[in-house]
């Protein structure tokens, strides 16, 4: 059987953020009302030491598509809104989601505040779309920054014929190309692309080739060969979730 996985080679990653920008472009993820963003592809940034002897490390993070996924167990809906596919992807169905956020609470990686010395910020894994607010609030705002001079978000969306104006259109039986308020959302390994034989867009867009995606149960695949050659690491191994996002090598300082 297929088990899709992603390897992130930290020897090649330079923390440029191309993967995050590609993810936002492909999946039309929105700004939150507080100005933060839904980043399905996010980062942990860490600094060590004292100037001038300092070190810096960036670790890309995303949904780990765990084989033992607490988010799936926690979902109270039947049939489940958060579930595992036959090819190992942790999938989410928009229509069945009731916005209870039980999956988000159960996930040991979701919105996890990094507490290690030198690290900062929070990283997204499962995001919640605030209920009652437009999903693409920026492009639902008719106010002009300078009345009679600048345009508004609604005018841009109307002129482009899409919300957001840069909308990437795709069809998938479980999730929409733009979600709605009151539900959760997350990375799906770009299943709408994978089903057509394409790579997840973050993989395709990485200029250093630091992301490798494929079937780890296929001994001839690149991911399987890399796992055989290198000893991989995962985030929070103590959680026992068996992540299918794995890391090899060390990030250069």
Automatic annotation (TrEMBL):
Renumbered to this chain, the signal peptide range is: none
* Coiled-coil region: none
UniProt entry keywords in alphabetical sequence: 4Fe-4S, Iron, Iron-sulfur, Metal-binding
Q: Which CDD domains match?
A: PsrB
Metal-binding recorded as keyword = yes
Domain spans labelled 4Fe-4S ferredoxin-type: 4-34, 88-117
- Asked if the record carries the keyword Thylakoid, the reply is no
Under PROSITE patterns, the record lists: 4FE4S_FER_1 (PS00198), 4FE4S_FER_2 (PS51379)
Q: Name one GO molecular function term.
A: 4 iron, 4 sulfur cluster binding
**Pfam families assigned:** Fer4_11 (PF13247), Fer4_2 (PF12797)
User: What is the protein name for this chain?
Assistant: 4Fe-4S dicluster domain-containing protein
Query: Which organism is this entry from?
Result: Candidatus Desulfatifera sulfidica
Origin organism lineage: Bacteria, Pseudomonadati, Thermodesulfobacteriota, Desulfobulbia, Desulfobulbales
